[in-house]
Design goal:
Blueprint (H helix, E strand, L loop, with lengths): L2 H14 L4 H12 L7 H4 L20 H9 L3 H12 L4 H12 L9
Length: about 110
């Protein structure tokens, strides 16, 4: 993949809210270092779960399904259906949803 393609991919990820401004700048610096062979996907690291955020725009209750949908590129209604289906099994879906609502931070207003 060409350097310009990698930089465009990083810019797209930043615009989608998957990268903060700081993460974008660090990944861009890694790409632009002379002799660096790190690709954009490798420069993002393996801590992708730490970038999971609750959505401010795509939400019914806490934004959990909207945030997971943005993170996984799956429609939010599919996640809502999944949580509703899990609710039928002794409230498991409700328990997971509440735990995610508590422990997953809300996305920054600047990421919108």
């Amino acid at each position: 993949m060409a350097l310009s393609d990698e930089l465009q991919r990083l810019a797209d990820l930043r615009q989608q809210g998957a990268l903060t401004e700081d993460e974008f700048q660090r990944a861009k610096a890694r790409l632009l270092e002379p002799g660096s062979t790190v690709s954009a996907s490798a420069s993002l690291g393996d801590n992708s779960i730490s970038r999971l955020r609750r959505s401010r725009t795509e939400r019914w209750l806490g934004g959990v399904c909207g945030g997971i949908a943005r993170h996984t590129n799956v429609e939010p209604w599919i996640w809502r259906l999944g949580f509703a289906f899990l609710f039928l099994f002794w409230g498991t879906g409700l328990l997971f949803y509440i735990l995610l609502w508590i422990f997953v931070p809300e996305e920054d207003a600047t990421a919108l």
